[in-house]
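Try this one yourself first.
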C-alpha cells in the first residue's frame, strides 16, 4: 500500500468542500461574527486615537487583517469537529479500515479544512471592501492568500490534535472555545500588542496567529510589527510542527 494516496486525499478534499458549499447556514455562521466585528468596531472606532496604531492606518484597516485571521482560526480549528462528526456517523471507521494510510487521511483532512477556511477568509476580505477597506495592491492580495494557507494548515493541524483526544463532539466544542479565544485575544487582531501588560506580551509572541495577522497586515495594509519574511518563516515552522503533531496523534485513533 502506497504511503501517500493522492486519490484518497482528493476524495476527502472534495467531500469536505462539498459539505461546506452545500450548507449555506454554515457559511453564514462562519462569516457572521467577523462581519459584525468589522461593522461595529471597524466603523465605530474608525476615528478613535488608539495607542500603538501605526501611523496613516485607520482602525478599519488595522482590523480587517485581524478579522481574516479570526475567521481562519475558527474555521480551521473547527475542522477537527468534522472528524468527531464522522465518528458519530460511522464514516471515520469506514475510512480507517480502508486500504489507505493514515497519512493520506490526515493530508486529505488538512486539504479540505484549509480550503474551506480560506473560502471563509476570502469572503471576509471581499465583504470588507464595501465598508471602506482597500488592499494596497493586487500582489498584496495574492501574498495574503499565501499567509491564509499557512494559517489554515497550522490550525487544521491544531484541530486534528485536539480532535484526536476526544470521543464526543460536545466535549471538543467546549474545550476548543476555551482554547481559541485566548489565542485570538493574544494575536493582535483587535488591538496593538504593545497595549498588553508586559507580563502577558511575551505569550503573544508564542502564538502562531500573531505572525499570521501581522503578515496579513504587512501585505494588505503595508504596516506591521515584523517583516513579511519573519512572519512567513514563523508560520511555516508552526504549520510543520502542528501538522506533524496532529498526524502523530491521529495515527493512534482507534477504529472503535
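Now uncover the answer:
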Amino acid at each position: 500500500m502506497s504511503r501517500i494516496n493522492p486519490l484518497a486525499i482528493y476524495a476527502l478534499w472534495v467531500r469536505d468542500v462539498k459539505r461546506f458549499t452545500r450548507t449555506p447556514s454554515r457559511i453564514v455562521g462562519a462569516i457572521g461574527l467577523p462581519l459584525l466585528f468589522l461593522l461595529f468596531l471597524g466603523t465605530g472606532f474608525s476615528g478613535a486615537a488608539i495607542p500603538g496604531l501605526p501611523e496613516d492606518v485607520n482602525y478599519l484597516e488595522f482590523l480587517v487583517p485581524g478579522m481574516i485571521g479570526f475567521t481562519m482560526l475558527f474555521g480551521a480549528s473547527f475542522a477537527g469537529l468534522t472528524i468527531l462528526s464522522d465518528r458519530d456517523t460511522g464514516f471515520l471507521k469506514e475510512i480507517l479500515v480502508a486500504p489507505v494510510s493514515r497519512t493520506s487521511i490526515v493530508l486529505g483532512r488538512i486539504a479540505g479544512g484549509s480550503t474551506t477556511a480560506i473560502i471563509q477568509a476570502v469572503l471576509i476580505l471581499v465583504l470588507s471592501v464595501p465598508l471602506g477597506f482597500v488592499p494596497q495592491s493586487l500582489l498584496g492580495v495574492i501574498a495574503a492568500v499565501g499567509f491564509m494557507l499557512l494559517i489554515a494548515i497550522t490550525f487544521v493541524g491544531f484541530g486534528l490534535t485536539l480532535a484526536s483526544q476526544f470521543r464526543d463532539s460536545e466535549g471538543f466544542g467546549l474545550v476548543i472555545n476555551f482554547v481559541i479565544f485566548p489565542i485570538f485575544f493574544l494575536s493582535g487582531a483587535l488591538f496593538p500588542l504593545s497595549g498588553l501588560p508586559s507580563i502577558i506580551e511575551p505569550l503573544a509572541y508564542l502564538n502562531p496567529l500573531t505572525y499570521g495577522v501581522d503578515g496579513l497586515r504587512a501585505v494588505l495594509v503595508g504596516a506591521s510589527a515584523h517583516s513579511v519574511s519573519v512572519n512567513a518563516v514563523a508560520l511555516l515552522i508552526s504549520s510543520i510542527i502542528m501538522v506533524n503533531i496532529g498526524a502523530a496523534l491521529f495515527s493512534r485513533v482507534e477504529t472503535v
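Discussion: The chain has eleven helices and no strands. The mean pLDDT is 85.
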